[in-house]
Request: fold
Amino acid sequence: MSRQSGGHTPMMQQYWDIKSQHLDKLLFYRLGDFYELFYDDAKKAAKLLNITLTQRGESQGAPIPMAGVPYHASENYLAKLVKMGESIAICEQVGDPALSKGPVAREVQRIITPGTLTDDALMEADRPNILMSIFCHQQSIGIAWLELANGRFMVEQISDQKKIIDVIARVGPAELVMEESQVTEEIRQLSLPLTVRSAACFAAKSCRQLLLEQLQSQDLTGFGCEQLVVAQRAAGALLHYVHVTQKSQLRHIRTIRVNVISQYVQLDQASRIHLSLTQQGNGDNSNTLFKALDHTESPMGKRLLKFWIHHPLRSKEAIQSRQLAVTALRLCEQNNQLQALTTQLENLGDIERIVARVTLGTARPYDLVKLRHTLECLPEIHHFIKTYQQVGCALSSTAGIHPYDTLLTLLIQAIHEEPSSLIRDGNVIADGYHEQLDSYRRYASDSQAMLDDLLSSTQQTHGLPNLKMGYNRVSGYYFELPKSQSHLAPESFIRRQTLKNVERYTIASLKQFEQEALSAQAKALALEKEIYGNILEQISEYTEALNQTSSDCAMVDCIQSLARWSVDEEFCLPEFSSERGIHLVAAHHPLLIAQNNKKSVANDHCMTDRQHIHIITGPNMGGKSTFMRQTASCVLLAHIGAYVPAEAMRLSIVDQIFCRVGSGDDLAGGRSTFMMEMAETANILHNASRDSLVLMDEVGRGTSTYDGMSLAWSIIHYLVEKNQSMVLFATHYHEITELQAYHDAVVNRHLAVKEVNGQLIFLYQVRDGATNKSYGLQVAKLAGVPANVIQHAKEKLRQYNRQQAPIAQGDLLDLDEASQAGVSPDEERLLFDTIKEMDIDSMSPREAQAALYKLAEMVKCEA
Reply:
């Protein structure tokens, strides 16, 4: 359909004029009580929302595809579209239909995108809604992100492009803004709503100026980002995008902070998924560390707890400060004193999001009611903290938790306890707050009595007992007489409408009343909107203070959540030591504890500075992965200041946690399981440090036995010699366990099992030493593999065992060279048979030397 002028109806021409400015968005075009979508927008919305696609007349000689949603139910449809990553332009009627000669004047008053949401109906309460911008220049990458719903504005500048995906995973944006030429294929595959902007939007000079104007500052030194020039460009482009979409002042954004990643323990994207911090690899979030810890009562508390989990602390002092607060509230919970606090936290509204809507001018009446109820809770929370002095002393910041007497009085006096949902419906401002508004309302409320009096007096004056009164939008107020009595109508009656059985009239006094009544209603509504706007302005003056209150309440909520999680007597408070290592006594996996798993077996774990590479062997299903993740989860819990499910724990501060556990193809990225495994392994080898905790499970299993074994050995050797990290390495390559004899740092441990009458029993106990059996056939039997398949497998296993000789450690050292030389299996077998036939114990030194020369000659000939 052509968008050019000519051939369109006036209304459709208006539609195209507006749509041409928002081609990348669905245009919700207001028509009466509906939002209508036309043409391709209609087809797309009908499919996404499962609504009816119809046609409306013609324009340029062709039917107009159309779909619509009721205005009063639009939020539900908008929420669905936003979750699908769509952006929507809301086009409202701004003109008066009674005064319009052509189409009613319309304009886009709101643009909704996945990353710029502020309405509770469109957002998840326990998840921050973040807009992120990324800009690359030379060797620097500037990253900025904004949570519009609370005004939190952050920047970060990095130099490694490979870290971009990890930052995205850490922050979790809902929408990404980038310059089109900089969007990589890896970013496109993230299934993240992406908005591309022109290069001009990232211009250094204009971005800096926009930042200075927004922050009301002459330079950025005070914000710590004066030298972060590339990050400034990302932040400025982000601000410009928000200004375009919101079409309002952003008065709640008056500061910007530099994210200092060295404050936190680093986890890459793969590790966050493998450890199930807030989401599992399959996208499910029901069995995660967050779910285990979450006893928060407020929405901002839930969001902060997720932030803590993704940002474990590296400062020993900061961790111990949080531990002190958790311990204080844990004691309250054990003494049944905590409910006084949790009851009040449960009644808190989402303070920071309410405040953001107030400053943006989009707050609804219910927001103010919820803010009032929140302010009523604060004195009780303040009293609790003061009563239990050890709690107040332990909490790092409670200055924002205090009564707001003046603001609370305003809300009580100004806002109805149960107001209308929208200000345009009236009945929001409380009676008695504004004298003129009360006067208009009295006129409206008294109008029915006045109408009754007018009807009664007219009936009596003219002797018309059957005279009735009615109202409709077309005729307004009217008198009605049966046609059989119409001849009795006095001359003062002015005929307005003739129907089949009745005649309708008006009189001067009725017409005057109608004008006055409708005028009073209109004036009341206009005045109410004005008063409401003034109230929002008054609340806006408390923006900074209320945001501090929100932050402090969220912190208290998170602390009490960790206290309630750890109330079990078998939990311990980790002790941090300057001596490198991890010591756990009778530890459990946090997720098994959360599930109340009675089969959970406690295990000790001792990793020291001298013995920091632990090779874990044992059968499939034996618990190797669980044990490894258990250690990492307890380390992470310790770094967020939480108690851990163990009798005792002592550890050093770690700088990074790497977790290479689990498998699965990256179909979208075109990477096999083995390729993903190697990519994650490469990341570990390049970035793990001496203070890093590394978990690696079954590395090398995705290729041939010799290739996999060679890789596993080489990776451990590299970790020992180069990275010197604290490592848990699970493997089925039992030959790898011989590394303990060559490196003092290597320790072998295994998951114990026992066989009873041919049945395999998993003990889930971690013991010293290595195991030389994998129990693969027994596990297959437990899984229900047919008996004849198991029997056939046993016969093949015996056959292979007769044919194969064990691979010695010396052979492992030269696996790569042997592979390079292209030695055939037959030649290898001849070499092994020659070695087996040698009676080394009975050889003299001269005979041993001769045998060695013979073997060397064989290798040279075969090569």
About this structure: The CA atoms of residues 149 and 312 lie 24 Å apart. The first strand starts at residue 26 and ends at 31. Confidence is low (pLDDT under 50) at residues 665-670, 812-822.
